[in-house]
Amino acid sequence: MDATVDALSSAYLDFVAAAAAVVEAKEQSGGQKTALTEAALENFKQRWELFAVRWLVIELQHGSGPVVGSGAAHNSASAPFDARFSDDSAP
Fold first, then answer.
1. For residues 14 and 22, what is the distance between their CA atoms, to the nearest angstrom?
2. Closest Cα to residue 64, out of 52, 53, 74, 54?
3. How many CA atoms lie within 13 A of 56 on its CB side?
4. Which of 48, 55, 59, 67 is 20 to 30 Å from the Cα of 5, by its Cα?
């Protein structure tokens, strides 16, 4: 369990650092789209995806993850996944 928590914590810290890098790059560019801002955004996207995967693994390991096809509402911890894949759910 400690290794799982450490992995999630590390992914979260990387995600936060990437978010800060996006803000810094945007400030340095005066809000303009540049190679630096694009690289920072791509890194942010990758760090978010890594964090999201780590979170999902923990949910699945502990039985609190979404049940595919159940139509059941997810708890608030899985909300980012619901928003990202909202087009996958059937009405």
1. 12
2. 74
3. 12
4. 67
What is the spatial distance between Cα 53 and Cα 49, in angstroms, rounded to a whole number?
6
- Alpha-helical segments (H) within the chain: 2-28, 35-61, 79-84
* Residue 36 contacts residue 25 (beta carbons within 8 Å): yes
Tokens for 76, please give them. 């608030």
Asked if residue 22 lies in contact with residue 41, where contact means CB atoms within 8 angstroms, the answer is yes
Q: What six digits make up the tokens of 35?
A: 């190679």
Q: Where are the domains of the chain?
A: 2-88
Query: Cβ distance 48 to 56 under 8 Å?
Result: no
pLDDT one-digit tens code per residue, 17-51: 999 999 999 999 998 999 999 999 999 999 999 99
45 token code pair = 């996207």
- Name residue, tokens 């694009």: 38
